[in-house]
Amino acid sequence: MFMILPVMIPVTIAAYSIVGEKTTRSLEPLLATPITTTELLLGKGIAAVLPAVVVTWISFGIYIIAVRLMTNPTVFAQVVAPMWLLAVFVVGPLLAVLAVCAAMMISSRVTDPRTAEQLAGAVMMPIILLLLGQSFGIFLLSSELVLVAAVVVLLLDVVLIYLTVQMFARETILTRWK
Question: What is the span of the domain harbouring residue 72?
Fold first, then answer.
């Protein structure tokens, strides 16, 4: 659950971030400002990622407190094991960045906010299926797997951030997108 929150929350925000502003006619003045495409997308990305990460961390904190109060020390030790802390505090935010980049790439190419949200949700389906596979015991997470996932997602984030900036056709949006 704490790995799905940082993926699903920002997708909606990021998917709407470009195409939604385009449909309300508030994107053109923003694109005409002297900020770079990287700065624009970074600001929109942070605005989508930050709420998801904060909500996830607060929820996890509440969960840790509840587990501490309601279970024995053995169960509590498993919840605060380094593997889970790494997953929630490192892999979760990295997955949020991945989701936001995919959603912004889609949002910059489509012309309808609902289409952007639906396509962005579909792109995130493999991540959600992996997380559900672990929840249902199809495979089990280990510290090594979480570390490998962190490195792989970090590399994917770097590539997707680059592609998001490259695919954002500022001039096309200003002149030809209807």
Answer: 5-175
